[in-house]
Amino acid sequence: MRTFVIGDIHGGLLALEQVLERANVTTEDTLIFLGDYVDGWSQSVEVIDYLIDLKSKQNCICIRGNHDQLALDWLENRHDDFDEEMWYKHGGKATVEGYAKISEEKKKAHIEFLENLQDFYLDDHNRLFVHAGFTNLNGVKWEYFSKLFYWDRTLWETALSLDPKLKEDDLHYPKRFTVYKEVYIGHTPVTRIGETVPVNRACVWNVDTGAAFRGPLTILNIDTKEYWQSEPLNELYFNEKGRN
Fold first, then answer.
1. What is the sign, positive or negative, of the torsion defined by CA atoms of 238, 220, 187, 11?
2. Where would I find the H helices in 88-153?
3. pTM
């Protein structure tokens, strides 16, 4: 029995199938998905179909990403604080086109899936899994604005800027990095710092390796830190633009 964490998929079903096969995932393994299943490549609907089916076969923990919430808001016709034009530009167009082809019954099943996504998951070893981050110095259970779980970038920015020589007992060491043994996030692609593999800073592991753009999708064994990757998504979907 192994536990894997999977980065942002963004409609790339071909990549998801590829990493699960490359990691030799079995139904005995636990899969933790960090969110952003939709928006980008053309198979957002198929990715959710796949996850719904996978959850019926093995232990899957599905975290809510900001793009998943945007898609849910659109599906449920909620337009408060929703910039539809901006969403279209950042991958929403492909999602809308995908949902134009399915039945109302299947759409309802997808809405139920999206509504039941978790804001975060904390395991028995004090390891936190969250799409974007958190801002409260005492941890996720004290977060006042729940949207920050899938929109925050300050956790990762702080981790990147932290002096690696600074010790945990130093007065200037960020308290956020002392709450959990490890924190696994997606949301901000590591391609922004020129990487295409998981990046660890302080206690934070960023597993978003840019699958929405020209990077691969990554699956990582949280105990051994061994990881497997798909081919770059722009090669798997060579006739599509994605979010590029």
1. positive
2. 93-99, 104-115, 148-151
3. 0.97
